[in-house]
């Protein structure tokens, strides 16, 4: 376990890396004893610095490491989470400036917008469906403040689950009107199909991932709030992007969303 001064040091370091777009060496290379609990405390420090400096607010949460491929890569058997702020949200069609990021990669997923609070533990998939106002296709453009994406689970957690920016699009639809586990997703980059999947790739269903988040946060005394946006986890591979690229994500029954990069 790290002491308070180390927690603050690394949180400040990651916040400065975000602002200056200068990556830092992996925390796990420097602190052999760092735990996932330490990493979440570092994340809280990093986010607190961001909110204080910018006046942004927390508008939701993201779930990461939901697919077996990424879990195997990071040698873990659980997802992680990070905080979404108001400054991360891009409108449909609004260009994302890659020069303001370090090493951006895009993920296609489904976002949940809540109409009532969810407080774990004990939250079920049925509770998630009842608490959700609508679901929409979205892109999360992840970015790592850790050099060359050389991350272990503690590194990405400390780095706010590698959050970058996000876009929301498509049609808003109740999750009770669509089987998210079976809904097909097609991801295109510059007009070429690069990934097809279904929601079952995410914890069996994106609904299960949101239930996991509510229960995990509930044990920490944190609830999911009405109006929050919850990103349920990537259904696509991580796709490196650069200026000039454009992506389209289509979800059966939900329509499509697009993002372009300058």
Overall pLDDT:
93
Which architecture does the CATH hierarchy give at level 2? Alpha-Beta Complex
Number of structurally distinct domains: 1
Q: What's the number of extended β-strand segments?
A: 12
Succession of helices and strands: HHHEHEEEHEHEEEHEEEE
Poorly predicted parts: none
Can you describe this structure in just a few lines?
By secondary structure, this protein is α+β, with helices and mostly antiparallel strands.
Describe the structure.
The chain is of the alpha+beta class. It has one domain (4-260): Fumarylacetoacetate hydrolase, domain 2 (Alpha-Beta Complex). Helices cover 28% and strands 27% of the residues. The chain has helices at residues 4-20, 27-30, 36-54, 68-74, 125-131, 153-158, 206-219; strands spanning 58-64, 80-85, 89-90, 105-114, 132-142, 165-168, 184-189, 192-198, 229-231, 239-240, 246-251, 255-260. β7 (184-189) and β8 (192-198) form a beta hairpin. The longest helix is centred in the first third of the chain and has 19 residues, at 36-54.
């Amino acid at each position: 376990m790290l002491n308070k001064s180390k927690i603050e040091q690394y949180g400040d370091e990651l916040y400065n890396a975000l602002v200056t777009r200068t990556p830092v060496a992996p925390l796990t290379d420097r602190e052999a004893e760092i735990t996932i609990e330490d990493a979440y405390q570092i994340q809280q420090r990093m986010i607190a610095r961001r909110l204080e400096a910018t006046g942004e607010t927390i508008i939701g949460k993201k779930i990461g490491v939901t697919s077996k491929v990424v879990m195997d890569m990071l040698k873990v058997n659980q997802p992680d989470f990070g905080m979404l702020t108001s400054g991360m949200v891009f409108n449909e069609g609004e260009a994302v400036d890659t020069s303001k990021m370090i090493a951006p990669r895009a993920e296609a997923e489904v976002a949940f917008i809540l109409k009532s609070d969810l407080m774990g533990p004990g939250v079920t998939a049925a509770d998630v469906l009842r608490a959700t106002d609508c679901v929409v296709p979205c892109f999360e453009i992840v970015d790592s403040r850790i050099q060359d994406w050389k991350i272990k689970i503690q590194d990405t957690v400390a780095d706010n689950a590698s959050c970058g920016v996000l876009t929301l699009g498509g049609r808003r639809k109740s999750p009770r009107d669509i089987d998210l586990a079976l809904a097909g997703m097609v991801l295109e980059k510059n007009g070429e199909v690069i990934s097809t999947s279904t929601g079952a790739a995410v914890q069996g269903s994106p609904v299960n991932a949101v239930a996991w988040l509510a229960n995990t946060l509930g044990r920490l005394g944190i609830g999911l709030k009405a109006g929050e946006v919850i990103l349920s986890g990537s259904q696509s591979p991580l796709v490196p992007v650069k200026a000039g690229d454009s992506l389209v994500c289509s979800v059966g029954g939900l329509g499509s969303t697009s993002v372009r990069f300058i």
